[in-house]
């Protein structure tokens, strides 16, 4: 999840590189750095912590040069210090890297054995030394990189700057994304098209194993066998504007409030309101033969997948396997022919999920990707692209991407049921109607923001918090706990309500708030029984339900949150709002960094 930008051109680059990093800070904010080639020397500015620290450093000590590379880091190897900040450099070369060099230890020992001196604890520094050694031995940059790339195991996107060649940058990718941008008399490298938004819209995506030599005039791409290749240039459509917070204090709050609009926007591509049909953006894609569905994702996207498992089984009657992406391919999963794998990822770059996608593709599965970035690796590698239209999500804790993913997954489940001829009279029409009601219901849920803010104090002082739910509210309980952990640093766990009595109930005492998600409906009474088991042991319950549910079971709770009454199909979307707002207000009450919580990054591009 580190971010990379590079510019080779004729005008000063430092400010523009910094601007590129601002667009990539979602990938990590442990440290940042820039190197340029200037006056026959490689010069660097680096700073630990957020980008503002590097900006301050550059203001105090500007960095001249018309060719440069830049990096924002999410540390994997070595702490978030200035010494470990990229670019890593020798006298001859500077390198920025996204990924993990898995054989770095052996390479480092070998290099130390030859007298090379390391100044960081990172895996990346071996790349700088390996390339430098070749350059010092007389190889030109192209020859040096060609020699070194086969020695690197693991995943990398690299941008390399050469002291003696200020007119050139070399990039390479294996496992981590890298794009080439084409300008007028300038060429760029970037982790994604977003980073290059203000510089160019003309983008070529490198394939796995590609490496590229960039000069002012353009770029020459080579494939993994070192054969010159052409990679198509596409127009990214990314504008140069940075997304603003509007009138909101944090991006996260802005994004919570955007949900009615972006869910409506997303549903527009999937619901044919006139025909009362659910369709997919690729209408000719035939799902009728799908026998089994495998859903793979990480974090919040995984919980969206967990909700979808209930829907696929309920509507389309197909068996569904659900896996955390980082576990999937390491347990020799059995994938039968005719299976559909659904990968879910906001960025479409999540390394664990991407690896699972590739594994399943090699096993002959049809791949559907539910992603928010239509130019992402997953979008490009899937057979069926199912975009969410959430718009850029900047807050590290996912909110609007989650509810948009749910909207798409509900549509896909309904479409699969239709393709299999499983809908009885009027059923599809009902689904279209209920999904169509979601934006207004989300709006109604947002109206309770102030009352949720008022009760945040009851949670902010807690050391541990439990979330309980049944059915599709169980994944929401997990999501609520994840949100709280991520941004308030309070330990929280989500449980299936009925599972409490099998162990976790031992944790209950008067210091552990228990948040129960229980819309009135078929599972309400069972959930309320579990809630009463908690109350009987002195547990302090916050009940999230609708008016009827609160009337029936609100007594004895320390607080209640009233949601609009909605159909069970859209309850997971609507009930996402109070769990998001509760986590948000608790984090604000605790004074944490809501949009950039510690140790996290938005897009996780390492395994
Ligand atoms: N391994 C390198 C780069 C980390 C990275 O790509 N994170 O997403 C480091 O630790 O600096």
From TrEMBL:
Coiled-coil portions: none
Subcellular localization(s) per the UniProt record: Cytoplasm
EC code(s) of this entry: 2.6.1.16
Primary location class: cytoplasm
Substrates-to-products reaction catalysed: D-fructose 6-phosphate + L-glutamine = D-glucosamine 6-phosphate + L-glutamate
Keyword Transferase: yes
Annotated InterPro entries: GATase_2_dom (IPR017932), GFAT (IPR005855), GFAT_N (IPR047084), GlmS/AgaS_SIS (IPR035466), GlmS/FrlB_SIS (IPR035490), Ntn_hydrolases_N (IPR029055), SIS_dom (IPR001347), SIS_dom_sf (IPR046348)
Residue ranges of the TM segments: none
GO cellular component: cytosol
Protein name per its UniProtKB record: Glutamine--fructose-6-phosphate aminotransferase [isomerizing]
Source organism of this protein record: Sphingomonas jinjuensis
């Amino acid at each position: 999840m580190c971010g990379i930008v590079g510019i080779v051109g004729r005008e000063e680059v430092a400010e523009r590189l910094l601007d590129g990093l601002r667009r990539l800070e979602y990938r990590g904010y442990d440290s940042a750095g820039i190197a340029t080639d200037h006056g026959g020397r490689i010069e660097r500015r680096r700073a630990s912590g957020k980008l503002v620290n590097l900006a301050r450093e550059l203001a105090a000590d500007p960095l001249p040069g018309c060719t440069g590379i830049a990096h924002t880091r999410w540390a994997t190897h070595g702490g978030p210090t200035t010494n470990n900040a990229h670019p890593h450099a020798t006298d001859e070369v500077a390198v920025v890297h996204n990924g993990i060099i898995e054989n770095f230890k052996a390479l480092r020992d070998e290099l130390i054995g030859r007298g090379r001196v390391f100044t960081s604890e990172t895996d990346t520094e071996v790349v700088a030394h390996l390339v430098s050694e070749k350059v010092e031995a007389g190889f030109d940059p192209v020859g040096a990189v060609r020699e070194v790339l086969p020695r690197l195991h693991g995943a990398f996107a690299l941008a390399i700057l050469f002291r003696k060649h200020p007119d050139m940058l070399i990039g390479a990718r294996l496992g981590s994304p890298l794009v080439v941008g084409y300008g007028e008399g300038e060429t760029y490298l970037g982790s994604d098209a977003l980073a290059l938004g203000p510089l160019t819209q003309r983008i070529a995506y490198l394939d796995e194993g590609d490496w590229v030599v960039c000069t002012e005039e353009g770029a020459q791409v080579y494939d993994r066998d070192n054969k010159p290749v052409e990679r198509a240039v596409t127009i990214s459509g990314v504008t140069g504007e940075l997304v603003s917070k509007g009138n909101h204090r944090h991006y996260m709050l802005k994004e919570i409030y955007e949900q009615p609009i972006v869910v409506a926007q997303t549903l527009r591509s999937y619901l044919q309101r006139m025909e009362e049909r659910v369709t997919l953006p690729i209408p000719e894609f035939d799902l009728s033969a799908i026998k089994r569905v495998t859903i793979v994702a990480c974090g919040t996207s995984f919980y969206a997948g967990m909700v979808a498992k209930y829907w696929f089984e309920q509507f389309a009657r197909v068996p569904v396997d659900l896996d955390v992406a980082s576990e999937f391919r390491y347990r020799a999963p059995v994938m039968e022919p005719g299976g559909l794998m659904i990968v879910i990822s906001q960025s479409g770059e999540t390394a664990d999920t991407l690896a699972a996608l590739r594994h399943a593709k090699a096993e002959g599965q049809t791949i559907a990707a539910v992603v928010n970035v239509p130019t992402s690796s997953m979008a490009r590698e899937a057979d069926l692209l199912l975009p969410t239209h959430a718009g850029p999500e900047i807050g590290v804790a996912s909110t609007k991407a989650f509810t948009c993913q749910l909207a798409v997954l509900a549509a896909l489940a309904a479409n699969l049921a239709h393709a299999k001829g499983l809908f009885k009279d009027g059923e599809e029409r009902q689904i279209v109607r209920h999904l169509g009601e979601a934006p207004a219901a989300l709006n109604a849920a947002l109206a309770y923001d102030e009352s949720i803010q008022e009760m945040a104090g009851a949670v902010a002082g807690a050391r541990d918090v439990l979330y309980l739910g049944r059915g599709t509210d169980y994944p929401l309980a997990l999501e609520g706990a994840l949100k709280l952990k991520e941004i308030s640093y309070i330990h929280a766990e989500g449980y299936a309500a009925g599972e409490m009595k099998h162990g976790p109930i031992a944790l209950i005492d008067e210091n552990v708030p228990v948040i129960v998600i229980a819309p009135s409906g078929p599972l309400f009474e069972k959930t309320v029984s579990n809630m009463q088991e908690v109350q009987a042991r002195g547990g302090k319950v916050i009940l999230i339900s609708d008016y009827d549910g609160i009337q029936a079971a609100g007594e004895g709770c320390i607080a209640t949150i009233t949601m609009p009454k909605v159909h069970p199909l859209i309850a997971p979307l609507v009930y996402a709002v109070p769990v998001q707002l509760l986590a948000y207000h608790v984090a604000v009450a605790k004074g944490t960094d809501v949009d950039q919580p510690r140790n996290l990054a938005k897009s996780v591009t390492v395994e």
